[in-house]
Write a structure and sequence with these properties.
Layout: H1 7-16, H2 20-68, H3 73-108, H4 113-155, H5 161-169, H6 174-183, H7 187-222, H8 229-293
């Protein structure tokens, strides 16, 4: 290890440098600015995700409207495939993009009320979007249920609304389905209609499951709280740094005081040496004069 003859001088300069603390504060300030930039970037990314989410809900609503107006099982199934794709995209973006990013933002506010307000606003936007998603799907479920009941009554005109509702509700039972075909006057037409009724009932069941998922997601959002840990850690770190700086300052004061004491001591020693020398010289001169007289 090589010896640096300037190391002690550098340490002394740092301890006596009146701008050292300013440098530390400037570095902290730059770090805060960088963190601010990251925060706002995350906020903007989440806003973009919410925009995509709402656009997908609009697309889903249009597809559902087309499905309700579909004629025949083949057309209905083709539109259902698109509905399934849009629904999966919505599930993906809400579970893999929006929710985790929102959770991260809740953790990164650090007690900053302005940041918390922005994040709270984003949570409300997401909550409103989910509620709209639920409403769109609820309307689709109800319309599909009514459409299926109407179609069953076409095949069995004598069936009451209650009987038709009960049939649609239990359409998954193959025996019930077969019995309905046997009771129909025109079996070929009945098979086609009942196939469509079954397809619509499957859509009803799918939307029921989706509603439960969205309710769970809303509950998760309600449970999000702002965390103050980062603020506490940051405050502790700043206090620790301040304490270290104070301790270094105390050490420097002690060193300076010791140096001053030593300086004063040597000045007194030098003073008395000079006095003694003067006295010796004076004594020698006086002694010489007296001796010469004798």
């Amino acid at each position: 290890m090589s010896y640096n003859p300037y190391a002690s001088e550098q340490d002394k300069y740092q301890s006596n440098n009146p701008y050292a603390n300013d440098d530390i504060e400037m570095n902290n300030y730059r770090g805060d600015i960088a963190n601010q930039g990251d925060f706002f970037k995350q906020v903007q990314t989440l806003k973009d995700d919410l925009s995509d989410y709402n656009a997908l809900i609009n697309q889903l609503e249009r597809l559902q409207s087309s499905a309700l107006n579909a004629v025949g099982t083949e057309e209905l199934n083709a539109i259902k495939a698109q509905i399934d794709s849009a629904t999966e995209n919505l599930r993906s973006i809400q579970a893999l993009e929006i929710k985790p990013k929102l959770e991260q933002l809740f953790k990164s506010c650090g007690g900053d009320t302005d940041k918390e307000d922005q994040v709270e606003n984003l949570r409300n936007q997401f909550r409103n979007a989910i509620t709209r998603f639920q409403k769109v799907d609820d309307n689709y479920r109800e319309s599909n249920q009514n459409k299926a009941i109407e179609q069953y009554q076409i095949v069995n005109p004598d069936a009451t609304y209650s009987e038709a509702y009960q049939f649609v509700d239990s359409i998954g039972n193959q025996q019930v389905f077969d019995e309905a075909i046997q009771m129909a006057n025109r079996k070929g037409e009945a098979i086609a209609v009942l196939d469509e009724v079954k397809a619509r009932h499957q859509e009803v069941l799918r939307t029921v499951q989706l509603t439960a998922e969205l309710n769970e997601l809303l509950n998760d959002l309600q449970g999000l709280v702002f965390q103050q840990e980062e603020l506490i850690d940051s405050s502790n770190q700043k206090l620790e740094k301040a304490q270290q700086q104070i301790e270094r300052g105390d050490a420097n004061v002690i060193k300076a005081r010791d140096h001053a004491k030593k300086g004063r001591k040597w000045r007194w020693i030098l003073f008395w040496v000079v006095v003694i020398l003067i006295c010796a010289i004076v004594g020698g001169v006086v002694g010489g004069v007296v001796g010469s007289r004798h």
